[in-house]
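Lecture 7 notes: from sequence to structure.

We start with a single chain of 300 residues. Read the sequence below before looking at the structure.
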Amino acid sequence: MSISPAQAYDLGQVPSPRPVAMGDALNALGVSTAALYLNPANMPLARVYHLEALAAYGPEDTRQTYGLAIVDSLLNAGHISGGVGATWSEFDPQGIQRQWIDGRLALALPLGDHLSFGVTGRWLRVGQARGAGPFGPSPVSDGGSGPLYNLITFDAGATATLVEGLRIAVVGHNLTNPGSSLAPTTAAAGIGYTTSIFSIEADGLLDFTTWGATRGRAMAGAEVFLDNHYALRGGWRYDAGMNINAASAGFGYIDPRWSVEVAYRHDLISEHASSLAVLSLRYFYDALGNTSPVDQPDSL
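Now the structure, written as C-alpha cells:
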C-alpha cells in the first residue's frame, strides 16, 4: 500500500459519516450512533432510537470497514441511555493483511439538564498476516500464533450544556492504558454550538501512546441543515504525529424514519496522501411517539 500503517489504522477509530465529514470534531455535539464511538456522554442529549449500518473504503490501503450500531436514549423513562455496536475492518489484504473486530457497549446518565456522563466498554481483537515482513515467518516479528492483540478496555466522557445549544465535552479513550498503538490512550475536548439550522464545533485530541511521546490533533467542522431534510457538512483535521492536514465533506438526506449519509476525507498536505469514503443507512424508531429526527437537528 502507498501509505503507512498508522495512516491506515487511524488510531483504530470507527469511521461514521457525520464525524468524518466534520473532521472528527463531534465530541461535544455528536449524538445518536456517533456518540457510541466518540463520546458516550452525548447519548442522553437527544431523544433517539436509531439503528445504523455503515461501510467505509480507502483505496490507497484497500481499507474496508463494515458495522452495525443501535443507540437508545429512551431507556428507563429517559434517565439511562444505552448503545451497542460492532465493526469489522481490514487493510492491506495483499501485504500485512491487518484485520480487527471492534465491539462496544455504552451507557450514559444525565445529571439534571446541564450535565451528563457516559462509559463505553470496548472489546478489540486484532489479527495480522504471519511472515509478511522482510525476514519471513518469525516468532520475534510475528508474535507467535493467535491474534496480534485481544483486549477489553473502556472510554469515559462528560458533556456540559452551558446555555441552550452550547456544549463543552471531555472524553478519554482506552483508559486502561494498554500501552499499544493498536489501542492508544487518548484524551479529547471539544466545544460546539448547534441550532435548528446549523452546527459548528472545534476539538483537540492528545495521543499519549502511538508515537512514544504525546502528539496532538486539531479538528474543526460545521454543518448546515436545509429544507428540513438535507445536511451539508465540511471539516478539517491536522494530525501532528503524522504531520498531515486533511479536508473532509459530507452530505445527508434525513427523513422522519430513515437517513442516508455519505462522507469523504482526503489528505491535502501529506507526503503520501490517503482518502476515505463512508456510507451509512439509519432507521429511526420512535416507540413513544416523540418528536421526529427532522424536527430535532441534534438527533442527527
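The chain has one domain: 5-299. Keep this in mind for problem set 3.
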